[in-house]
Structure formats: C-alpha cells, structure tokens
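Entry 14. Ran structure prediction on the chain below.
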Amino acid sequence: MKTSLSNTLSALFKTSYKEKISFFDNKESRKTYGWTGINDNVMGGKSSSSSLINKNGNFEFKGIVSTNNNGGFSSSRKTVSKKLETTSEIIKINLKGDGKTYQFRIKNKLENYYSYVQSFSTSGEWETIELTLDQFHPTYRGKKMSLSNFKHQSIEQIGFLIGNKINEEFRLIVSKIWID
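Output, structure tokens:
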C-alpha cells in the first residue's frame, strides 16, 4: 500500500511540476562562463565585440558594429545541453539593453549550419523579454530558410547577434536566461 501511494504521488508530482530550465543565471555565472564572440571579421568585416562576465556576475556583450568592408554584425554564443518538454514554452531573458534591436539565436544541434532566430527590441531599462520557442525561424547568413519554425526537444546552443545594417556601438547586459 505504501509503495502504491508513493508511486501515485510521484506520478502526480511529475505531471504537475515542471522544473525550470536555466541557460544562464548571474548567481552561477562564474562557474558557467563559456560565451564565445564571433564577429563579421570571419568574412572580412571590421566589427569588434567582447563577451564577459562583469563585476556583478552578469553576462555583458558589447562592442562596435561596422559596415566597413561588407561587415555589419557581432555575435556571442554559448554551448548548452537542455532537453525541452514542449516547443510552446517561452524563453525568458532578463536584460538591460541600449534601445537597439538584437536577435536571440538557438540551435537544436551544434552541427547545424543554420540557427533559429527571433528578434527583440530593448528599452534601455532592465526588463524581461519573452520569446516563444515555436516562433523561432531558421536563418542562415541573414536569410530566412524555407524550413519549419523550431519544433525540437533540445537546445544545444544559445546566442545573441546584433546586425542592424548601420555603424553603431552596442551594449547588452544579461542577468538570466531561462524557461519556467
């Protein structure tokens, strides 16, 4: 009887409780750094950026986007390994931007040459951005691909990109990225 009740409670707990998926949290940041910058200089451009953990433990992505020499983007990405329950979930990002538009990018497999992308605008204040997983569309080198939106059960890479087709300085500070 005790085992049956235990199994019932365990099953009930598993169906009603969903564990939060954390991609980055400034409380754990020093242990989980792993951000890598990729700029347009891989294609001859002149943009520059840095990806660092600042003194408050937040991820900071900042730099200068230059359209010189056919350039025009800066990005930073992090390898993760997260299983998802459903693609209707929402990625939440607590951040402080600079009033500019950025992309949040995800990959379900590291070896994919394309990313799933969703753009968002920042207000210049601390805010939480919410992005629904099934609204991420596949993109390669700035062009939308004729594949389905994100429908996968895992995420292996996350990242940010700025590429607004103008010369500009930028600064994005992130304290947390998660799915509840």
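The longest strand covers residues 168-179. Will compare against last week's run tomorrow.
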